[in-house]
Amino acid sequence: xxxxxxxxxxxxxxxxxxxxxxxxxxxxxxxxxxxxxxxxxxxxxxxxxxxxxxxxxxxxxxxxxxxxxxxxxxxxxxxxxxxxxxxxxxxxxxxxxxxxxxxxxxxxxxxxxxxxxxxxxxxxxxxxxxxxxxxxxxxxxxxxxxxxxxxxxxxxxxxxxxxxxxxxxxxxxxxxxxxxxxxxxxxxxxxxxxxxxxxxxxxxxxxxxxxxxxxxxxxxxxxxxxxxxxxxxxxxxxxxxxxxxxxxxxxxxxxxxxxxxxxxxxxxxxxxxxxxxxxxxxxxxxxxxxxxxxxxxxxx
Length: 300
Known about the structure:
The chain has helices at 28-32, 58-70, 90-103, 131-148, 169-180, 188-197, 202-208, 240-253, 269-298, and strands spanning 19-22, 45-48, 73-76, 107-111, 113-116, 120-126, 153-155, 183-187, 214-219, 223-226, 229-231, 258-260. By secondary structure, the protein is an alpha/beta fold. The strands form 3 sheets. An 8-stranded parallel β-barrel has the order 1-2-3-4-7-8-9-12. The chain has a two-stranded antiparallel sheet with strand order 5-6.
């Protein structure tokens, strides 16, 4: 399947269009209030962690389903544990599939990490960057896709150590994507965080990713622990350097759906919507440029 060619078009693999917002329980009532209704028209799709919503009924379940009726909904999982030595939890994967069917959810992604080893580790741990680990992880992704009967995406993760590293991060990610024949959930902030923590060029890394695999993207804020240490928190506003990296991504690959993540320390809704609007403005600028370029070429 052809990917983006840098002309602002949208590959068929994109499950949604436009700009999204991560839906968190703390935002349910705030986003739905009459005062914020007009601003919410800027949101084209939403995303939730399935672990927070599977089998949730009652008042909360009703609220969640009301959002599913109004917005295209995506799932971004936390506990698939793709790189774990433990067997895949196939019962959990089947529950994911039923949840997607029941709530008309369009797409599922998870992290290129592991979070279990004879028990839950309660963190997203880095998979060793080796060819053996890439092949092992790809096989598990293919099994997930077989069970779900759907393509899934894996997210490039932030990490703070690289135990057992034998190949580069970019080669590891590319190898997994190719062997598993799955999609990429491109996390812009994670590239920036890792580029500072591990001292590499963020733009060079970004442009080395396989554009044709990008399903959609995340953008978020982080915490500066020190000049050379950034913690990926999703608890702050997006900084200018990360906005600039998103701009480079659109310039390099064309416009793709992009979602704002915020997990805690929530500002007023209008501030969240300002960031949503900023994503939309960058997308529109690149789309306008692509249309102007195409028109100029057409008129010779």
